[in-house]
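Reopening this one. Same input as before:
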Amino acid sequence: MLVTAAAAQPSTSADLSQAPSIYLQGSGADGGTHAATVGMTLPWNGWSYDLWGGQVRGFWDIYATRLSFDGIHGHDRSWMLGLTPTLRWRAYNGSSPWFVQAGIGLSYMTDRYITVHKEFSTSFNFASHLGVGYSFGEQRRHELQLRVEHISNAGIKHPNPGENFAQLRYAYHF
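Same output, byte for byte:
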């Protein structure tokens, strides 16, 4: 009877690093641009791919970012909304707490990004990133990640100077 009751209890050692998450992210770019992001990730349940002794999994990254920058008329702001399909690789058949990831998605800025140094010609842009991170805590519920993200319109319209952001993200898996 004790064995049956123990088997029915949820495991406290389950790995939640592949579960949905919410996150906060801070970013910076050249020319005085800063960004604060809130977002969530939704895993592609049931999909994985074995690669180089590790495991690749995917998820959707949905976010809203508040950009703050030195604009042509003083201090300016814009909202950026985005959706990015992302691939994440973990070593040791997916059991490593360390991971690397990459993604390319779409973003929309409520106001075009026009700083004293550069001007985007479109509100719709592509956002691509590379990141390295670490999962930790009970059930690997917490995550820290360093990322580099590039935003541009991929040459659809000119000018297309692009912007590169250094990002720090904290995520909580539930």
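So the earlier flakiness isn't reproducible anymore. For the record, The chain is about 5% helix and 65% strand.
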